Amino acid sequence: MERKSARTIADAIGNTPLVRLDRLARNWNFNLWAKLEAYNPGGSAKDRTAHAMVTASQLKPGDTVVESSSGNLGIALSREAVLGDWTFHCVVDPRANRTTIAHMKALGTVVHQITEPDPDTGDWLVARRARVAELLEQMPDATCLDQYSNTAAFVAHDEGTMTEIVEQLGHAPDQLLVAVSTTGTIGGCLQYVAAHGLSTQVIAVDAEGSVLFDGHPGTRHLPGFGAGMVPELSKKISPHRVLRIDDRASVEAARKLVRTEAILPGASGGAVIAAVEKLSADIPAGSDVVVIVHDDGTRYMDTIYNDDWVEENL
């Protein structure tokens, strides 16, 4: 897809590649495609979400924003803050990758790293959101765009991600697999499918131990997908199916993708590949199956691509 010149780096968001995974799917009788969101300027699908939330807001130069992130949205909002001349405070937890935190700081973001999970639930996301609330009390003029409830995310992935997939494929896919956390990406894709009367089966790929879509809470080690609390956005959507993938399977599938197709995914990218493997025997011959690979694996070199870390934690 041809790119035009961009006024700012934000204009380079979108039009990411849709790539066939023929080597990975060589023993399957369906077509497998990957939507590679790492080709956004900030390296993830969260570029779309962040830009949509900022565009829909009333932010102006000099304002202050406080937000919670597991990493990718933090990078995306850090860039938006530079372009909008406002100040960004990002709350992260220990699972955030070191390179992600360094990236945010390089863009001028004030990073607040919590050290303890929520005492009642044991969940890091709940603790991050509590810290956001504290910071908003300390900075009464600050605002929170709140990625967990902001429906601008649906617009971003309806008018952006899913629209592009259909245009690039030339028709609607038969199955679409999307890793879920805030559920903004899958919500936008579902919105597009419903609005256009498509028969695409949209499958949520969730982490074992996540509470999304009636899941049971448990220990999770991988950032970027799954949730320890039910985000407001998830209450507005109903995926056609939910598959839960454990951390180890996500890591193994991520490594398989890079060794087979030379595509280096993050943890959630591994999860969607593991989900395809789980479904493969039941997918009708000739189907077009699309997975959204949310980000790039270079930020995970110390974790899912580190043998010592995997053996110690998983």
Automatic annotation (TrEMBL):
Needs which cofactor? pyridoxal 5'-phosphate
Entry-linked InterPro entries:
Cys_Synth/Cystath_Beta-Synth, P-phosphate_BS, TrpB-like_PALP, TrpB-like_PALP_sf
Q: Which Gene3D superfamilies match?
A: 3.40.50.1100
CDD domains, A to Z = CBS_like
The answer to whether keyword Transmembrane helix applies is: no
Superkingdom in the source lineage:
Bacteria
Keyword line: Pyridoxal phosphate
Gene Ontology terms, MF aspect: transferase activity, transferring alkyl or aryl (other than methyl) groups
- Where in this chain does the record put each Tryptophan synthase beta chain-like PALP domain? 10-294
GO biological process terms, semicolon-separated:
cysteine biosynthetic process from serine
The UniProt entry, under PROSITE patterns, shows: CYS_SYNTHASE
Q: Per the record's keyword annotation, is Nucleus included, yes or no?
A: no
Its recorded name reads 2,3-diaminopropionate biosynthesis protein SbnA
In its UniProt entry, the species of origin is given as: Corynebacterium stationis
In the record, what lineage is assigned to the organism producing the protein? Bacteria, Bacillati, Actinomycetota, Actinomycetes, Mycobacteriales
